[in-house]
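To whoever is covering the structure queue this week,

Two jobs came back overnight. Logging them here so there's a record in the thread.

Job A:
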Amino acid sequence: MLRDAIGDLELFIVGLTVSDSVMPKITVILDGPTGLGINECAMISRRLNRRIEERYGEDSVYSLEVTSPGADQPLTDPRQYTRHIGRSLALKLADGTEKTGVLTAATPEGVEIEEVIKQKTKKTTLPAAFYSFGDIKEAKVVISFK
């Protein structure tokens, strides 16, 4: 049903939750190669509402939210990394270490980061290192207000 609502748009599902309450809340989080705008969210929401009503009847009681991941949300799908090439990422690795640096490449297997190390009053950028998605516990885009 959700894939039908997305149609031929170059979007992918990042998250889907349904609350267990009297009036269930369905939250659909989508992303794409260039992000997701309000118009796409509205269009997909209308399509999903139609599909839900066709399947479960017009008297179904639910709340539907179609959205994109917020800027502070971790990257959870390998396809999300490509559009962030050139931006800083903060990685938490499975071994407990943390790395921060510029994303220089993204492949289906992992990412390449030029790590920035702060030493007293100067910053040093290390050569790019590759991290597989299996080694990445969490990745967030570092928001900069320069």
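Job B:
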Amino acid sequence: MDEFTAWKQMVYNAIFSIADLDFQKNAWFNNASELSSSFVETISILYDDSFFVKFLEADSWKFLKLSNKLHEEMSALKNMIDAYNEPESHKAILEDPNWLAIVFQARKVILLFDEEIKYKG
């Protein structure tokens, strides 16, 4: 696996956790079997561990060999996350229509990702 394939997998996995409400419910309400235990960690895995901003940069993107459509949808996801005002509790986040819109956008990204690189989960 080359470094770009590994990087794509890291970003995919991070976005998948944002797209998966069941994962969030389990992870954010202290289920020790999950990798992420809070909203902050879920977002941090995407931004800090997966270098999402760098992933979207033009210089990186040309080596990743992904479509402009996927880039547009990922950029939209990034903009939505950047604009998100986190409520006080995990329960409030999971009920927040703005968070649910982010979850929906993450699902769109995952579907496109699956079409382009055939990752499954």
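Note for Job B: The longest helix spans residues 97-117.

Please reply-all if you pick these up so we don't duplicate work.
Q.
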